[in-house]
From TrEMBL:
Residues 430-571 form the DALR anticodon binding domain. This is DALR anticodon-binding domain-containing protein 3. Signal peptide: none annotated. GO terms for molecular function: arginine-tRNA ligase activity; ATP binding; tRNA binding. The gene is dalrd3. It comes from Pundamilia nyererei.
Length: 571
């Protein structure tokens, strides 16, 4: 019965690496523990004993490697005992890839996976289990975007900076990723439905919450103001006087804000044990814009029905200090929700200064021009308008989201060039290769209609050992199998404790994953003729390839969905 359960469990990289490490270490794990020094020897962490290979060159002769340096820390002269080798070769377990063989060579102990068995295990069920997060988490996440809050007027595309646009796109991407992991997600602030900023966001495929133009949040604002006035962290007149006596400049400031409500923010994070906040926060004068943002946050969390609520403030590095003030003001008002800060680096445009509206207009014009150069007069009508809209959105998202979120992004915004329909250049390249998959299956369906090919048979009728081309294994092993674990990372980072106010999430990984996938798929597609001659003895291999590429098409859809990009089905 256990064998059946193991066979039905989706195959994963991490459980395989753990099982390999356990097989290699044996009882040493109990004796030495992790990284504990024994005499002059340091025994490595289990997860560092093995490396998953990914390059086409290395995958020709191995799938996992335990380097010689690691073997030398475990065994005298790096000699792997026969009993240990036997454990490695007979590896079993839930989610563990089947091992076909292994040997010790100059570079270390290399293991090869049973590829035919793995192809069948992954592709036979339609690969659906490989396209979703490993686990479904519980909790509510509010994604707060300070760039969209009124100050005091609702922001517009003509005043929004590219750095602020980056935070909005990042919040949108994070929302899609977290929903895939089971979180209830809401966005803050709510914006007027007839505003220019909402039209702009919709042009980028962003679905942001709206309210009627005459809607107000005054009741919650009054409640927040009252809570702050009664807060234990409110600075009293006596304390203010002592602080003012410290210098003339401070007295003048206090004079200008006579009777203003001030909150001691430093006291908030010190007394409540909140690490990672700027020690220079000090006291803060409560103003109308701040109260408005707190009321919006209060509104966004009102519908959360679960106990665990996290507010994730997605902000630019320029606005980080101000957002830390807002976070501590919210805490001082009585909000007990966990708050984390996802901070974005600046966006640089050497030689020019563009607003968000100008940048989108530029990229859209370049996309339309590039399409007309490639496809000529057929670039007209609603279908092409929709294609250009999606391709422009893809270009913008990949340009602003492919970099580590704390690092700066530098954009080429010259009027000439900038977007190409050829070459591995981010969003356009990814969407183009996704469209190639749709075209392939359209061609196959037309072949079926003409009687050239039979319908794709049940997987039980296929021999997946026919998938021998190195690009086929690379697509399965580097992309289809690891995708679920990639989806999981944002939730894991959000759940991590003790990291302080800031949270660092590998938000760039989906974009990089899609670009890398597209390069390897493009190389394979250009090299291999998938729809071959309509000869019966060639059908098995063709159908196995179609199973693989059908799963790959769904992988594209699944990954693009986290960027809120619909697939382009024809180009």
């Amino acid at each position: 019965m256990m064998e059946n359960i193991e066979e039905l469990s989706p195959l994963r990289i991490t459980p395989t690496v753990r099982a390999l490490s356990s097989a290699l270490r044996g009882k040493r794990e109990d004796v030495h523990g992790s990284s504990r020094v024994n005499g002059d020897r340091v025994f490595p962490e289990p997860e560092k004993l093995w490396f998953k290979e990914s390059s086409a060159k290395n995958l020709r002769n191995r799938d996992f490697l335990s380097p010689t340096t690691m073997l030398n820390t475990l065994y005298a002269d790096g000699q792997v005992p026969p009993a240990v080798m036997s454990r490695v070769l007979s590896l079993r377990g839930s989610g563990v890839l089947p091992v076909a063989g292994g040997e010790v060579m100059g570079e270390g102990l290399r293991v090869r996976v049973d590829r035919a068995v793995t192809f069948r295990a992954v592709l036979a069920g339609g690969a659906a289990e490989y396209l979703k997060a490993l686990s479904q988490r519980q909790g509510c996440v509010v994604l707060n975007c300070p760039a969209l809050h009124p100050k005091p007027n609702t922001p517009s595309p003509d005043t929004m900076s590219l750095g602020q646009l980056r935070t909005v796109l990042l919040a949108d991407h994070m929302g899609a990723l977290l929903r895939r992991q089971g979180y209830a997600v809401s966005f803050c602030p709510t914006l007027p439905e007839d505003s220019d900023i909402i039209s702009f966001l919709r042009a980028l495929g962003i679905d942001w919450p709206t309210a009627p133009g005459n809607w107000t949040n005054e009741e919650r604002e009054e409640k927040i103001q009252d809570s702050l006035e009664k807060s234990q962290y409110r600075e009293r007149e006596m304390e203010r006087g002592r602080r003012a006596s410290g210098g003339g400049g401070r007295k003048a400031e206090e004079g200008e804000n006579e009777g203003a409500l001030r909150i001691n923010l430093k006291q908030v994070f010190q007394e409540e044990g909140l690490p990672g906040y700027d020690p220079s926060l000090g006291t803060c004068t409560v103003n109308r814009d701040g109260v408005s943002q707190l009321a919006q946050l209060d509104l966004s969390t009102a519908d959360c029905t679960v106990a665990m609520v996290t507010a994730l403030h997605v902000t630019s590095c320029q606005d980080e200090f101000r957002q830390q003030q807002i976070a501590m003001l919210w805490r001082a008002s009585g909000a007990k929700h966990t708050q984390r800060h996802l901070v974005c680096g600046p966006v640089k445009t050497p030689g020019s200064h563009l607003t968000a509206a100008q940048y989108l207009q530029l990229r859209r014009g370049q996309m339309k021009e590039a399409s007309e150069m490639k496809y000529g007069d057929q670039v007209e009508g609603q279908t092409w308008e929709d294609i250009i809209k999606v391709m422009t959105s893809a270009t913008v998202r990949f340009e602003l989201l492919s970099t580590v979120h704390t690092s700066p992004v530098t954009l080429d915004v010259k009027r000439e060039g900038g977007v190409s329909t050829k070459g591995p250049r981010g969003g356009v390249f990814v969407m183009y290769n996704c469209a190639r998959l749709h075209t392939l299956f359209d061609s196959y369906e037309r072949g079926v209609e003409k009687g050239l090919y039979p319908e794709i048979p049940e997987d039980s009728q296929l021999d997946f050992s026919a998938l021998k081309e190195e690009g086929e294994w690379l697509l399965l092993f580097n992309y289809l199998i690891p995708f679920s674990e990639l989806l999981e990372q944002s939730g894991q980072a959000l759940d991590s404790e003790g990291g302080g106010a800031r949270v660092n999430i590998k938000t760039e990984q989906i974009c990089k994953f899609l670009v890398s996938l597209s390069k390897d798929f493009s190389s394979y597609y250009n090299r291999v003729h998938v729809l071959g001659e309509p000869l019966p003895h060639l059908f098995n291999q063709m159908f196995c390839r179609l199973y693989l590429l059908r799963a790959l098409r769904e992988l594209y859809h699944s990954a693009l969905d986290t960027l809120n990009l619909p697939p382009i089905r024809q180009l």
